[in-house]
Design a protein that fits this description.
The chain is of the alpha+beta class. The protein is about 40% helix and about 15% strand. The chain has three domains: about 10-125, no CATH class; about 140-190; about 205-395, no CATH class. It holds the Pfam family MULE.
Length: about 400
Amino acid sequence: MDQDVRFYVSLIQDDDNNPVYDSESETLHTPISSDDESSKHKFLEFNDDYEHGEGRFELGTRFATIDRFKEVVKDSFIAEGRELRWIKNDKERVRMGCMDDEWPCLVHLSYNNSLQCYQVKTYKNDHTCARDMGSNAADQHWISLKVEKRMNTQPHMRTSEAIDFLREEFSLTAHPKMVYRAVREARERIMGNEREQYSNVRDYLFEILRSNPGSRGFKSGYRPLIHLDGCFLKTYYGGQLLTVVAQDANNQFYVVAYGVTRSETKESWKWFLTLLEEDLGDVQTHGWNFMSDQQKGLLPALKAVMPNAHHQNCVMYIWKNFINRFKDLYIRKVVWDCAKCTTIPKFKEQMEKLKRINQGAWEYLSKFEPATLVKAYFSHGLKVDNLTNNMCEVFN
């Protein structure tokens, strides 16, 4: 031959109805001897332990499944930044090549009945197409598989972080919308489908009742200061999460109850607090005290359901509103100084000092009942002097 042609054609007996031969070669078409027959089962089996872009196969390489072969081909084309064309793609055989019409790269894989596996029967690998920072082989499913591995150590990965990860690890630039869908797909595989998880809530309740018969839970060793809070649910169904958190006898974090509502309103809080009172018992009997950030509709609902309940404000919430109104650095800590007073005379002294410095700041703090803010006015039955609603914030 006048020209060296680098075409690789299989001598393996094809089980396809239309076996693939891409060129003539005396060497490759030499009649099969008895020695060849005895060694025909010694073809290379693909090694699954490889890094991205390093997966190598050759003529005759065996694969357990077509899907595994497709993953390897995708990895190879993406690593080389080339476009992939599927010429034939079904359950029995796969033929693929690059986008060049002259087919400098062509691979054919089909099932070999004698070996009981899928086998590469045609292999040409003379790329002439240009490289790029992208590849049409990088579809949503491929990206999700790569992102899933990183999510094992970075479970809260955002779309922007996934885009940076793909660019750094695979030299790949993918469309943000595709990456967003891939991140969601990977997260569902790791954490489970959100819709399916909601259907398990009732089963979870019954399992708790079954495994803890006769347990009084929070009521058996409680501190009677109950923290209330609500937050948005950034999940499939959305809505609001209403929570009740308290401390046990060891000052440990204790989730008493939680509920999901469509929105945070007076009516939703009334529904939630009514169920809470049924579970925990009468306020006057048990001496329940409540703390909150004054969520929308909460205080009117608490007054309607438990009119005799004592309520405390989160000092952090008041302080943030205070410093937004009054920028004087000297009085920025006055809210905390007042809240930490353990005697009534000390509190009055702090308020008088504030009145002399800033009349407006004094009038603002005077709007709050001391019993909702200052340690000196707290109930002695609580045996706890929490000033913030941080327990609920941590849970949310």
